[in-house]
User: What shape does this take?
Amino acid sequence: MNKMDNDDLKKSRILYVKRFLEEQTDEAHPAVISDIIAYLADNGIAATRRTVTQDIDQLIEYGVDVVRNKCRQNQYFVGDRHFEIRELKLLIDAAQASKFLTAKRSRTIIDKLLALTNRYQADVLAEGLYFDDQVKPKNENAYITADLLLKAISQKKRVQFMYYEIGPDKAKTYKHNRHVYEFSPWRFLWNSDSYYIAGYSETHGKIIRFRIDRIAAPKMIETDAVPMPVGFDLAAFVKSVFQMYDGSLVDVTLKCENEMMKTIIDRFGEDVLTEIADVNTP
Assistant: This one.
């Protein structure tokens, strides 16, 4: 075996050691050197205690957080990971509950998220997964549309599409007799479990937002997109389109029962200006 073969074998062995530690260990499930040697042997790679120890030292040098518990047989496990388990839980719950993703796409994303941790935590995270197909889309049209819009944003190009609403008979009703909108996409928005795209509409002559799952027959065209204005306040735009109605902006004062405070906070955030109207009200 020449020097290049030895170098290739060493690189391959280190990668397998890294995979084993990431997939098979955590603080509650450390591994000893013999465990790693057995795993390497199952994958057709010969190793000794000395070579595996050297591989682990090199992984630590490269920045992998391999923790070594010193005892009669040293124990090893991966400490810090890209995501903590509670962070993965939040992401998995979001993918599971999303009404934008099909059940199949949700499962695919969740499988990828589970691959970011070890098998023990993955088993815990996978428990209790449930997909309500009744509230999930039946096809991936919206997912494909979002991908096209992302490419258009990246390439600074306009898109064309038709837009529809759902009528009382559950049929699609295309806006303005199947009018083809020409649109410069700028930013994705998420509101009330729906996905939107904000940008400049040639038809409307202003900045507007469209709900992505209501876009039909989208295509990217070669015309350069209208650039987003310098200093465009996305937060103010979101507030204007999701929390207000069309028309002149006015300040209003709402008088509510005490039990409505949670709804006010949910709607307007904790920074909303409030005061107690009746100090005698419990």
